[in-house]
Amino acid sequence: MAGRTYVIVGASSGFGQGAALHLGELRANVVLAARRSDLLEEVAGRVRAAGGQALVVTTDVSDPAKVEALANAAAARFGRIDVWMNIAGVGATGRFWDVPVADYSRMVDVNLKGVIYGSHAALRRFLAQGHGTLVNMGSVESEVPLAYHSAYGATKAGVLSLGRSLNEELRHAGHGKAIKVATVMPWAVDTPFFQHTANYSGHADRMALMDGPEKVVQALVWVSLHPREELPVGWKAQAASSAYHLFPDLTERVSANIHRAELAKGTPQAPTSGSLHQPVAEGRNVEGGVRARMKREDAAAEAGAAPLPAAQEPR
């Protein structure tokens, strides 16, 4: 890993920050991209302290010119790009018709178009240098549609489809062995994503059996060395994917019912566009504190606290 150059898009918090810090410990060169410049500088300092090298390039992935500038800056500093990780993502929770269309437009700009822009910039450089690995962040929702995350799941399905077709094009071009595209597909994970997501459901978002971020961070680094076209992370993601292939309609219904029930337990919350349109101050770490909040919500319910309006179906 020492001396390999990684571009991480979405490095300010969550999986991106976790991967950057882990790569720093392995003495890699890490190019950190996101919107929050101050937080990127903090992460860069921690990467350097761990033994790696770091370059901060403030980037909004919805702007193709800024993504191209990111690739140029990485190549100018380190000479080449070995791995490009498209991790930046935003979400929206609520009934499809309750979420403003402007939020959906922004979600597509970041989650799908941003991945397309990053993939385009990375692959052209990989082709020029003769090698490289592209790692795109999908989700279990890339395969299993989830009610109240309708458009988010649609963008993640697009990411998975993009990776599959790109691998075929690389194979046809004779680069299938030297250049790989991997899509990482985790279950719901406790990261600041849940603090940053737009939410019009009336309740804080949550999910049953939520994972910690460590296993996904490890999977990102592992797949950069051992590329696989698709990598469901953990037994829950693997089981959901297998179930969907066998019983798609049943899996959709069960998933929808679980998410509705979990939302009903969430703390009441006013409508918010989260970090979709502008960065927010909160959510600065790898972990998001969602599991701790869920424990408080469940304990309050068991103690007979005032019932949440969430006993009703989410709005």
UniProtKB/TrEMBL annotation:
GO terms for molecular function: oxidoreductase activity. GO terms for cellular component: membrane. Keywords: Oxidoreductase. Gene3D superfamilies: NAD(P)-binding Rossmann-like Domain. Residues 263-315 are annotated as: Disordered. SUPFAM superfamilies: NAD(P)-binding Rossmann-fold domains (SSF51735). It comes from the Bacteria. Its EC number is 1.-.-.-. It is an enzyme of class 1 (oxidoreductase). Belongs to the short-chain dehydrogenases/reductases (SDR) family. PANTHER family: DEHYDROGENASE/REDUCTASE SDR FAMILY MEMBER 7B (PTHR44196), DEHYDROGENASE_REDUCTASE SDR FAMILY MEMBER 7B (PTHR44196:SF1). This is Putative oxidoreductase. It comes from Sphingomonas mucosissima.
